[in-house]
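Hi U.,

Before I forget, here's the chain from the pilot set. I'm dumping it here mostly so it's searchable later in email.
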Amino acid sequence: MPPLAAAPPSSAQDTVPPPPSEADRAAQGMSQRQMAVDLIIGHARAAQAVAAILDNPEDTKRVNLLRAEQDAAYAELANSRTKQAVSFAELTAARAELAASQSEATSLKERCGIFYENQCTPRGGVNDVEIEDSNPVSPGPPPSQPVENIVVEDVVPLAAVPPVNID
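Structure:
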């Protein structure tokens, strides 16, 4: 196939119509070979259109401006992605810290619950046992007090002693 010659610079009004879609081609009953030829011609026309744009100085400036805008947008996107990566790392660290603190809080709650249950539950039937004192409390001084210098009034109050009649 001979190489295609570059088309002369054309005005902006000359536009290349888009090639028909595969569904349109199939509906028209085009063969695979004809579809391949149309595809090649479409690429060639697109290349000619790009060459025509690049040959025109005004279009070249416009393309360069668009490329500069595109590069700036890519740089901004890369910068924002870097910021997102940093914030994601910070978020991941905060999430791990939160999970650890929640785990610690759950552990403390469990420990407090066990402590509370141990304090409130009777153990081994202790509440069922009645304690009887085999030694009644005597009205005398406790055994730890010294016995010397004791007066009778100290041991038994006078009001408790019945009056004695001497005949």
